Amino acid sequence: MNIGIIGAGHIGGTLTRRFSALGHKVFVANSRGPESLAALAAETGATPVSVTEAAQSGDVVIVTIPEKNIPKLPPKLFEGSSDRVVVVDTGNYYPQQRDGRIDGIEEGATESRWVSQQLGRPVVKAFNNMYAQHLLKLGRPAGTPGRIALPVAGDDEKAKSIVLKLVDELGFDGVDAGGLDDSWQQQPGTPVYGADLDAEGVRRALSSARKERKAEWRATEQT
Ligand SMILES: NC(=O)c1ccc[n+]([C@@H]2O[C@H](COP(=O)([O-])OP(=O)(O)OC[C@H]3O[C@@H](n4cnc5c(N)ncnc54)[C@H](OP(=O)(O)O)[C@@H]3O)[C@@H](O)[C@H]2O)c1
Fold first, then answer.
1. Residue whose CA is at the smallest distance from ligand 1 atom 19
2. pTM of the prediction?
C-alpha cells in the first residue's frame, strides 16, 4: 500500500519505521521540508516529500501533527485526490500543555470531528491512545494472549476496515469504536487512553468512558 504520513515526530516517525518494515511504500513529510528527513529516509527507505505530496501520494494518508497546527496545513490539501483515499487522524487536544484553546473542541465537537472539518475530509481516528514507543515495540502476532488492542473510530465502514487491517499488521487487535462522534470515548483522560488493554479491556473501557471533558483537558483563562 502507498501510505502518506504528514508529521515525522514521535508517532509519524514510528509509523514510518513500522510501515516501511512491513513492506508498504511510505511518503513522509514534516514542516521543515524533505531535506530534513534524510536520516529517517536512509534508515527506513521511506521517501521524504512535501506535505502536499504526502497528502496526494497515499492510498492511506496519516495526519500526525500537533492539534494546534492542523489549521496551518496548506488549504485544500486533499483537493483532487480520490474519495477512496483514507485519511487517518492520530491527534489529541492538549489545551494546557501544547495546543492552547481550540474553540470548536471546547464547544463540544470531538477532536477528530474538528480535524475532519479543518481538513474538509472524513477521517478515521486511530493510534491516538498509545505511546509512540509502545507502538514501535509492543506489536505481537495475531492470537498472542494479551495482545494489545487499539480503538478505531470513523463514519466510513470501508475506510475503517482498511485501518483495522493496518492495526493488525502492526501487531495489535483493532477494536471498532463506532463513528467519529463516538470518538470522545478514546480521547485523552478516558479509561482507554494510554492504557494498553487487550480487546476485551478496550471494549469495557470505551463503554465506561464519561463524555464530560475533565478540567485538566479543558482550556483555561491562561491558555
Ligand atoms: N507522542 C505520542 O506518544 C503520541 C501518542 C499518540 C498520539 N499522539 C498525538 O499525535 C500527534 C503527533 O504527536 P507527536 O508526539 O508525534 O508529535 P511530535 O513528536 O511533536 O512531532 C510533530 C511532527 O509534526 C510536524 N509538523 C508540525 N506542524 C506541521 C505542519 N504545519 N506541517 C507539517 N508538519 C508539521 C513536525 O515537523 P517539524 O519537526 O519539521 O516541525 C513533526 O515532524 C499529536 O496530536 C499527539 O497528541 C502522540
1. 9
2. 0.98
Mean per-residue pLDDT over the chain, rounded: 97
Checking phi first, is residue 14 left (phi over 0); if not, alpha (psi -120 to 50) or beta? Answer: alpha
* pLDDT tens digits for range 11-26: 999 999 999 999 999 9
Which residues fall within 8 angstroms of residue 120, CB to CB, at 6 or more apart? 76, 78
Residue with cell 466510513: 156
User: In 56-100, where do the E strands start and end?
Assistant: 60-63, 86-89
Residue nearest to atom 43 of ligand 1 (CA): 8
Do 159 and 196 meet the contact criterion of CB atoms below 8 Å apart? no
Q: Can you tell me which atom of ligand 1 is nearest the CA of 10? A: 16
Residue 87's DSSP bridge partners are 61
* CA dist., res. 39 & res. 202, Å (int): 36
At 222 the pLDDT is 86
